[in-house]
């Protein structure tokens, strides 16, 4: 008689843990272990080609990184591309979601349509955009030429390359964020708008006074997610260079931190130094995500 | 709302934690033996594969081609991580020394074919302890390919002997002709493709390049390196460059659109031109290189130790690089054999290529190959080439002066070789 009793107790006490176990196992194997191991590697002088030959050097990789002008250059580029892509992206997403929230013809089609850029292969997207931003035969230079503005060598200068890369990022992620905004817009009770209308609030006032404050948690979510994604950008600048050299242009004018990490790890084969970059990037992202979380929380609550 | 916020925080936290990890992928095979051959550019093996497969019904060959830099970086990564490399991997002259340094990762191909090869070609893929890691495929040699029609339109002599004679005195003469071309150039064309490619040709003629024979980087001290730089800078400043970066999509496009009139032309470049500039068949021609001699590129087939079908791979690599196949690859693709016994065969020495206006490419390239003085290549040659190319691109893009760019290039090279 003790058997069923025990199994019944195990069932209620034990099974919840069993249900969540797969996540933690996967997370441990593919999240936590690489994270900790990368941390260990970052304290070593570790050559990837010498079959794992390594030597403990303490914080030497980090202090070298701190004095490495190419790291600061990459950090600056990353932040610039991130700001240039994230801010317009989220504003556009909010506006698109607002439009999609109205009664439109082919509403489902349009709503699904905004997600299309996101499910297209990042490589395909970047290659198409890189051709459009081509110096000699690119479509954008052709359009600019029609208005009399001389051809721009998009890859050559810092600002133009950042602008081009940000466009690629924006094109890919705006629709995704719009759908998330749309989902939570639909959870806003309709009587709020009716009441506002009775009080004579305009459409824009409704948007600003009702929609945006009610979206606060979602805005926080998308800001944090975009921060994490935006600071890790790598494929776009790598492919934008055309020759796929990981230096991000002739003068590293569009080398991001993730690309710098890739260069150090897989061209210089400095596994330890690359790991130190990875951890530094992780910390930078954490700081930015927290700051953004606090900022967006405050801005939204001011509205109330 | 509370749920959404919790979800947001949880997802954000997870993403944050996984932000620092990374992963890779690999592929497997099954059934009859499938040999994966990983190459870059154009080795021209498609017909040969078919021939080999029909002679060996149990073998299937799959070729993977990537861009030059990608290919070699991927190979190094696959060697480092112990998986993912092809059964046969192509390696360019610029990277063979780097692979030679990690010779234990490759199958020793033995010494039975030593007597067939050009001695310097054989030597360059030999490890310190005498292991042979690669069968040579082709050598570059050096010539200049040019567009007859564009030369004519610019009022220059178009006949190949006249063109060869015009710049026989050296690269200065080449630049002089370039200035004449530029003065009357057809719209939308420049004299040559880009600074990086021209640089590779010029430095390829020097007795010593980026390395001295004891594996020391001499970029900062070897006057030849700086002289070649100055020459290319002068060419750029005289507006002779189409400012296209070698092996980029724009460069490929440049062939098709006819953006440049000349290009430094190792034998393998002929295969490239035939691929990319099909509509200009018969309009291209080949002249001797200014100054004579020199080499740029040429490749090897290696068999990484991590492969599952080493014996079969070795056999295929040996077959693909055997004299008979190398000879075929010259007449069909223009790839110059690395086996000197072939140079005097009439079907090679007498070969004329209709694509290049029946230029006697056989005579031109075999003469060049016989006169070629080999240059020692060190472990990071390929990456140093890329660094110097970037330096020249900075000048082409108007970002820096020659001196600024040179200083940055030297310090980048030092960092690379550290």
Oligomeric nature of the chains? heterodimer
Q: How big a fraction of the residues of chain A is strand?
A: under 5%
Write down the Rg of chain B. 23 Å
Strand order of the largest sheet of chain B: 2-1-3-9-4-10
- Which CATH class of chain A applies here? Mainly Alpha
Which chains have the largest interface? A-B, 50 and 50 residues
Q: What this model shows, in words?
A:
The complex is a heterodimer of chains A (304) and B (418). Chain A is mainly alpha-helical. Chain A has one domain: MetI-like (MetI-like fold, Orthogonal Bundle). Chain A has 14 helices and two strands. Chain A has helices at residues 2-41, 60-66, 69-100, 107-113, 116-119, 122-132, 139-146, 158-185, 190-198, 203-214, 216-230, 235-240, 257-266, 271-302, and strands spanning 44-46, 54-56. Chain A has a two-stranded antiparallel ribbon with strand order 1-2. With 418 residues, chain B is of the alpha/beta class. Chain B has two domains: 33-139 and 298-321, 3-Layer(aba) Sandwich (D-Maltodextrin-Binding Protein, domain 2); 143-296 and 361-417, Periplasmic binding protein-like II (D-Maltodextrin-Binding Protein, domain 2, 3-Layer(aba) Sandwich), CATH 3.40.190. Helix content of chain B is 46%, strand content 13%. In chain B, the strands form two sheets. Chain B has a six-stranded mixed β-sheet, with helices on both faces. In chain B, strand 1 (33-40), helix 2 (46-55) and strand 2 (59-66) form a beta-alpha-beta unit. The longest helix of chain B is centred in the first third of the chain and has 17 residues, at 2-18. The N and C termini of chain B lie far apart (55 Å). Chain A: Residues 75-292 form the ABC transmembrane type-1 domain. Chain A: Keywords: Cell membrane, Membrane, Transmembrane, Transmembrane helix, Transport.
């Amino acid at each position: 008689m003790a058997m069923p009793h025990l199994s019944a107790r195990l069932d209620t006490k034990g099974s919840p843990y069993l249900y969540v176990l797969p996540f933690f196992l996967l997370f441990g194997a593919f999240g936590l272990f690489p994270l900790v191991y990368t941390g260990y590697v970052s304290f070593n002088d570790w050559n990837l080609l010498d079959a794992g030959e390594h030597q403990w050097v303490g914080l030497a990789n980090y202090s070298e990184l701190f004095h490495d002008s190419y790291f600061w250059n990459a950090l600056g580029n990353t932040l610039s591309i991130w700001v240039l892509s994230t801010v317009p992206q989220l504003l556009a997403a909010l506006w698109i979601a607002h439009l999609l929230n109205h009664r439109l013809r082919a509403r489902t089609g349009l709503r699904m349509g905004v997600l299309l850029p996101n499910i297209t292969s990042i490589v395909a997207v970047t290659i198409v955009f890189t051709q459009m931003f081509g110096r000699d035969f690119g479509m954008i230079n052709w359009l600019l030429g029609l208005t009399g503005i001389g051809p721009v060598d998009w890859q050559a200068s810092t600002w133009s390359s950042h602008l081009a890369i940000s466009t690629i990022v924006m094109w890919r992620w705006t629709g995704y964020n719009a759908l998330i905004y749309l989902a939570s817009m639909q959870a806003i009770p309709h009587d709020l708008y009716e009441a506002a209308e009775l009080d004579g609030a305009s459409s824009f006032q409704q948007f600003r006074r009702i929609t945006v404050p009610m979206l606060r948690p979602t805005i926080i979510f998308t800001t944090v997610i975009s921060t994490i994604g935006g600071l890790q950008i790598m494929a776009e600048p790598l492919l934008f260079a055309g020759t796929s050299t990981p230096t991000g242009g002739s003068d590293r004018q569009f080398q991001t931190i993730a690309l710098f990490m890739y260069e150090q790890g897989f061209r210089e084969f400095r596994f330890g130094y690359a790991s130190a970059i990875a951890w530094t990037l992780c910390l930078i992202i954490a700081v930015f995500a927290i700051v953004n979380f606090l900022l967006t929380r405050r801005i939204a609550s001011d509205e109330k | 709302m509370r749920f959404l916020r919790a979800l947001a925080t949880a997802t954000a936290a997870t993403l944050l934690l996984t932000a620092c990890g990374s992963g890779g992928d690999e592929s497997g095979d099954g059934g009859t033996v499938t040999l994966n051959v990983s190459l870059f550019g154009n080795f021209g093996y498609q017909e040969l594969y078919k021939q080999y497969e029909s002679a060996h019904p149990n073998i299937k060959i799959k070729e993977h081609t990537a861009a030059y830099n990608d290919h070699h970086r991927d190979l190094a990564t696959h060697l480092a991580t112990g998986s993912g490399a092809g059964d046969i991997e192509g390696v360019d002259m610029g990277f063979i020394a780097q692979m030679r340094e990690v010779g234990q990762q490759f199958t020793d191909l033995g010494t039975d074919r030593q007597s067939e090869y050009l001695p310097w070609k054989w030597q360059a893929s030999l490890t310190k302890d005498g292991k042979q890691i690669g069968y040579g495929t082709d050598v570059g040699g050096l010539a200049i390919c040019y567009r007859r029609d564009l030369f004519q339109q610019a009022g220059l002599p178009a006949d190949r002997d006249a063109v060869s004679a015009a710049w026989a005195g050296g690269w200065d003469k080449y630049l002089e002709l370039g200035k004449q071309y530029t003065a009357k150039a057809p719209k939308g064309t420049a004299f040559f493709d880009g600074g990086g490619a021209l640089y590779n040709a010029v430095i390829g003629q020097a007795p010593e390049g980026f390395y001295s024979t004891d594996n020391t980087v001499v970029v900062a001290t070897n006057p030849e390196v700086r002289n070649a730089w100055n020459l290319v800078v002068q060419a750029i400043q005289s507006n002779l460059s189409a400012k296209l970066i070698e092996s980029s999509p724009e460069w490929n496009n440049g062939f098709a659109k006819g953006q440049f009139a000349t290009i430094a032309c190792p034998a393998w470049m002929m295969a490239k031109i035939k691929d990319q500039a099909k509509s200009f068949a018969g309009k291209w021609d080949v002249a001797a290189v200014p100054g004579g001699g020199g080499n740029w590129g040429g490749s090897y087939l290696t068999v990484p130790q991590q492969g599952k079908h080493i014996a079969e791979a070795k056999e295929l690599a040996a077959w693909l690089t055997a004299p008979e196949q190398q000879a075929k690859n010259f007449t069909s693709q223009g790839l110059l054999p690395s086996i000197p016994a072939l140079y005097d065969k009439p079907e090679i020495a007498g070969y004329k290529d209709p694509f290049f206006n029946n230029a006697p490419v056989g005579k031109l390239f075999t003469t060049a190959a016989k006169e070629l003085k080999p240059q020692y290549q060190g472990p990071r040659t390929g990456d140093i080439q890329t660094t110097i190319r970037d330096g020249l691109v900075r000048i082409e893009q108007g970002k820096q002066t020659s001196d600024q760019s040179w200083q940055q290039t030297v310090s980048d090279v030092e960092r690379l070789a550290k």
